[in-house]
Design brief:
Blueprint: H1 5-27, E1 32-38, H2 42-57, E2 61-67, H3 73-85, E3 91-94, H4 104-110, H5 122-129, H6 138-149, E4 158-162, H7 169-178, E5 182-186, H8 193-197, E6 202-205, E7 223-226, E8 230-231, E9 238-239, H9 244-247, E10 253-254, H10 261-281
Parallel strand pairs: 1-2, 1-3, 4-5, 4-6, 6-7, 7-10
Antiparallel strand pairs: 8-9
Helix pairs in contact: 1-10, 2-10, 6-7, 6-10
The structure holds guanine.
Guanine (GUN) binds near residues 94, 95, 96, 118 and 138.
Length: about 280
């Protein structure tokens, strides 16, 4: 079964749109999301466009700010501080990666905790790992929602996560653990990855290598979640970390690329933005 992320994201965005309309009635304004892109990396440009489109679709105010890649770290941090102080801004997202001369950690720490719609701020990360209320990072949150909506049980299952990034691998592992899966975190240097991966009832792949996962790494009947967004070296088309055609008949459920995790990530960003806004307005 193909897990249709586009469809599930549409449902979630419709819920956000409905709640946004109600918020407009109640508070006289809608959530305002500011997305900052530094430089002109084509992949980042396309992600940022998608975020702006989704924000408008759910009825938010959306601002995209483009900065030259010559901007200094201090200038960027000062700009973020201005947005922090601006009461009309509810969510701030700085698209990663950033040019090498800018320290990503400093940028992430500078975004006000209550406007951190990405869930990357150390305050949100600590809260996640300590099981306190937090803004969940969008991709891991989207993955858990995809599993739930597809009716995949998590509790008691063996989950293998390939990848250990701060954005996806680590937080999704923790969220699966909190749902009582037994979690193995694997990576490019894991010995006998084929053997480890093929123990998974739920296999999450976020390693960033085109068609890295072959059919022999997938257990019959497993659920496969492909977080990869790569360019196929052969034809230049978008492809995932999983060889979809080779794995689709072995997996009981599998996400395609495009149309799987990506749309859910953006839908969760909209939900996070609404939650930050409501938290502020309900104070
Ligand atoms: N780059 C890749 N994924 C993400 C994300 O979820 N948020 C931001 N800000 N940058 C990213």
């Amino acid at each position: 079964m193909k897990i249709n992320g586009t469809e599930l994201a549409r449902d979630l965005k419709n819920e956000v749109k409905q709640k946004t309309a109600e918020a407009r009635e109640k508070y006289g304004r809608v959530p305002h999301l500011v997305v900052i892109l530094v430089g002109n990396d084509p992949a980042s440009q396309s992600y940022v466009k998608g975020k702006g489109r989704d924000a408008e679709e759910v009825g938010f105010k959306s601002t995209t700010i483009l900065k030259e890649d010559t901007i200094s770290e201090d200038e960027l941090l000062d700009f973020i501080k201005e947005l922090n102080a601006d009461d009309s801004v509810d969510g701030i997202l700085v698209q990663l990666p950033l040019p090498k001369h800018i320290d990503e950690n400093k940028v992430i720490e500078t975004i006000a905790l209550e406007k951190d719609v990405d869930g990357f701020h150390p305050g949100n990360v600590a809260a996640l790992w300590q099981k306190r209320p937090c803004t969940y990072p969008c991709t891991p949150k989207g993955i858990i929602k995809l599993l739930d909506k597809a009716g995949v049980e998590i509790e008691g299952k063996n989950a293998v996560v390939i990848g250990r990034s701060n954005i996806v691998g680590l937080p999704v592992s923790k969220m699966l653990l909190d749902r009582n899966a037994t979690v193995t975190i694997a990576h490019s240097r894991t010995k006998d990855l084929q053997k480890v991966a093929s123990t998974a009832d739920i296999l999450v792949v976020a390693i960033g290598r085109p068609r890295f996962v072959s059919a022999d790494m997938v257990k019959e009947g497993a659920t496969v979640i492909d977080v990869g967004v790569n360019r196929d070296p052969e034809n230049g088309k978008l492809c995932g970390d999983v060889d979809y055609e080779a794995c689709k008949d072995k997996a009981a459920a599998i996400t395609p690329v495009p149309g799987g995790v990506g749309p859910m990530t953006r839908a969760c960003l909209m939900e996070n933005t609404l939650e930050c806004f409501l938290k502020k307005m309900e104070k």
